[in-house]
């Protein structure tokens, strides 16, 4: 994806890579400055991206299950006691977080997912006729 973007993104355009969790930062970003020197690439969690904008956004980690997005329901009594009550609409808070991720881009957003274990959000986006491309 970044190879493709390096062919047409302008040096002043920002590329924001977003994930649900910090540990989902792509390993390829370790060498991003040398591999894609003309790209202005930033990584952050979706929560941290609130109020941010970029020309292009890549959302990573759209899978189901452990460390999935949407995150699994609260399981501990402590979490249930300290956090606000769960809303009636399924995954309401996680849907709002997905909305934040999708609306950070000025030009285009890509949502990367695992074909074998996609996030339920992938199917929702497909049902809304959001285009799904095999390649960027």
UniProtKB/TrEMBL annotation:
Gene this chain is encoded by: helD_1
Domain UvrD-like helicase C-terminal, first and last residues per copy: 12-112
Species of origin: Escherichia coli
GO cellular component: cytosol
Matches recorded under Pfam families: UvrD_C
GO biological process, one term: recombinational repair
Record keywords, A-Z: ATP-binding, Helicase, Hydrolase, Nucleotide-binding
Keyword Ligase: no
SUPFAM superfamilies according to UniProt: P-loop containing nucleoside triphosphate hydrolases
Molecular function as annotated in GO: 3'-5' DNA helicase activity; ATP binding; DNA binding; hydrolase activity
Cited InterPro entries: DNA_helicase_UvrD-like_C (IPR014017), DNA_helicase_UvrD/REP (IPR000212), P-loop_NTPase (IPR027417)
EC number: 3.6.1.-, 3.6.4.12
Name this protein carries in UniProt: DNA helicase IV
